[in-house]
Amino acid sequence: MKIQDIVLTPVAFADPPLLNVMGVHEPFALRGVVQLVCDDGVVGLGESYGDLAFLDQVRQVIPELKGHDVFDLPGLQRKIAAVLGKAVFSDQHGLTGGFSNRKTIATVYSLFEVACLDAQGHFLGRPVVDLLGGKSRDAVDFSAYLFYKYGAHLGAEEDAWGEVTTPETLVGAARTMIDRYGFKSIKVKGGVFEPDQEIAGIRALAEAFPGLPLRIDPNAGWKVDTAIRVARELDGVLEYLEDPTPGIEGMAQVAAQANMPLATNMCVVSFDDIEPAFRQRAVGVVLSDHHFWGGLRDTQALSKTAECFGVGLSMHSNSHLGISLAAMVHVAAATPHLTYACDTHWPWKTTDVIAPGSLAFVDGAVAVPDKPGLGVELDPDALARAHEDYVRCGQTKRDDVTYMRRFVGSFEPNTARW
Ligand code: GKR
Ligand code: MG
């Protein structure tokens, strides 16, 4: 089944002012949506980053992929690698670690791999999970993903979540999210306030939600000694401690002193990182992310590799829409070793580009769609609106730092500040 045409649509959707080590989320998050129009009118969908650096690479490969057979994934990868050559794009979409040529190719390939798998599923009348080997679970668990946040964007009214800057408001946001979605574990984005304040936030959650697994992720915002201290103070409280400090060596030093596993989506972000990180026992959990690990099948390869080394698997997220959520659900369902509840930014958005109804959170989990392909349909009007928002907002990359400086003029990103 051949690709006849490829439509790439950059989109933007409203995003609250969520805080992290780089600053604060801008009013819109960007994504790129691809439609592979194939023989017999079959359309395969894919979703990934929407920053210009990424879209430019995708635009370069598009002409080479027309006429390609969607069942020939190795050929697809070869064509993309040939066009991109030695290209390396740097992260303009948010805190996913270092970049390399391998990761660049894997990221561009992933967008098309997912769309090809969607098209294959439509052609065969089978859900993507079946093309990945079949379901290990009927529904995929997700974690509540809490952020400290400002109450409003610059010049805007307070949003429905309000300001979250204290342990009390953090617990309030967790309660709202858990009431709405039924999540059974909680992740907190840290690295924003002094570590003691963030420790107090975790303790408040532990008290308010006894028994719920908790995680904190300061995106490498702490020095090794601080990370070791936090690990000691939160011993017995955290399920895992995510990216407490920069780099594989630093993580290994913390891991040697911490009782809970360390997790990462920053120091193990490509197959090249596995050998040094696993040899040094720097991490106990890798957060997979098909968007930059080379698609759904390479996520499964990562899983097998991690399993062989006794390393657990969870899943990372960036701000995303429904096509990505569907892909996350299919691959997680087809990956038995992925036993931790996955991250998702889903609760923070208010619009989408897919028709409602195919993905729903029940008890913190999303049932694996059983319709052909990814099991989601584009809503053409919603896509058009999201594209208009993209054009209107004028953002071409994610830049939390510059936006933060409009709130706090002297702001500097937290690269292990504490
Ligand atoms: O959305 O601000 C954010 C997150 O900090 C995101 O950029 C990270 O990549 O969620 C991610 C993480 O787990 O590090
Ligand atoms: Mg992380």
Provide a brief overview of the structure.
The chain has 418 residues and is of the alpha/beta class. The protein has helices at residues 52-65, 73-84, 101-124, 128-131, 167-181, 195-208, 224-233, 248-257, 271-279, 290-293, 295-308, 322-333, 380-393, 400-407; strands at residues 3-14, 19-20, 23-24, 28-38, 43-49, 139-141, 144-147, 186-189, 214-217, 238-242, 262-264, 285-288, 312-315, 361-362, 365-367.
Topology:
Layout: E1 3-14, E2 19-20, E3 23-24, E4 28-38, E5 43-49, H1 52-65, H2 73-84, H3 101-124, H4 128-131, E6 139-141, E7 144-147, H5 167-181, E8 186-189, H6 195-208, E9 214-217, H7 224-233, E10 238-242, H8 248-257, E11 262-264, H9 271-279, E12 285-288, H10 290-293, H11 295-308, E13 312-315, H12 322-333, E14 361-362, E15 365-367, H13 380-393, H14 400-407
Parallel strand pairs: 7-8, 8-9, 9-10, 10-11, 11-12, 12-13
Antiparallel strand pairs: 1-4, 2-3, 4-5, 6-15, 14-15
Helix pairs in contact: 1-2, 2-3, 5-6, 7-8, 11-12
Magnesium ion binds at residues 217, 219, 242-243, 265, 316.
Family: Belongs to the mandelate racemase/muconate lactonizing enzyme family. GlucD subfamily.
Protein name: glucarate dehydratase
Pathway: Carbohydrate acid metabolism; D-glucarate degradation; 2,5-dioxopentanoate from D-glucarate: step 1/2
Model description:
By secondary structure, this protein is of the alpha/beta class. The protein folds into two domains: 137 residues, Enolase-like, N-terminal domain (Enolase-like, domain 1), CATH 3.30.390.10; 238 residues, TIM Barrel (Alpha-Beta Barrel). The protein contains 14 helices and 15 strands. The strands form four sheets. Strands 7-8-9-10-11-12-13 form a seven-stranded parallel β-sheet, with helices on one face. A three-stranded antiparallel β-sheet has the order 1-4-5. A three-stranded antiparallel β-sheet has the order 6-15-14. A hairpin with a 2-residue loop joins strand 14 and strand 15. Helix 1 packs across helix 2 and helix 5 packs across helix 6. It is globular and about 60 Å long. The termini are far apart. The model has no long low-confidence stretch (mean pLDDT 97). The site of magnesium ion has 6 residues, from loops. Pfam families: MR_MLE_C. It comes from Amycolatopsis xylanica. This is glucarate dehydratase. Its EC number is 4.2.1.40.
